[in-house]
Please model this.
Amino acid sequence: MKTVVRSICPNWDNKIYFAQPDENKYLRLFTSDLVGGQWTAPHKLDELDGDDAQNYPFMLSDGITLYYAAQGEESIGGY
Model:
C-alpha cells in the first residue's frame, strides 16, 4: 500500500493538495476545493505530470510554492 499525504493550504481552509493513484496506478498530485461544505471532485495537476510517481505535497504559506517528492532517476533522496 502506498502512503498518501494531504496538505491543507496554510492560509485557507478551503483547498487541499494530495496524492492518489491515477488510472495507471501511479501516484499523482491532485487538488480539491471546499465549496458549500462539500469537497469538489479531485483535479489532477497536469502541469506536474510525468513518468514518475509524485507524493508528499507541501504548500508554503505564500499559496504559490508547492513542494513535493517524485520518483525518478534525477530525484534526490531515493524516494
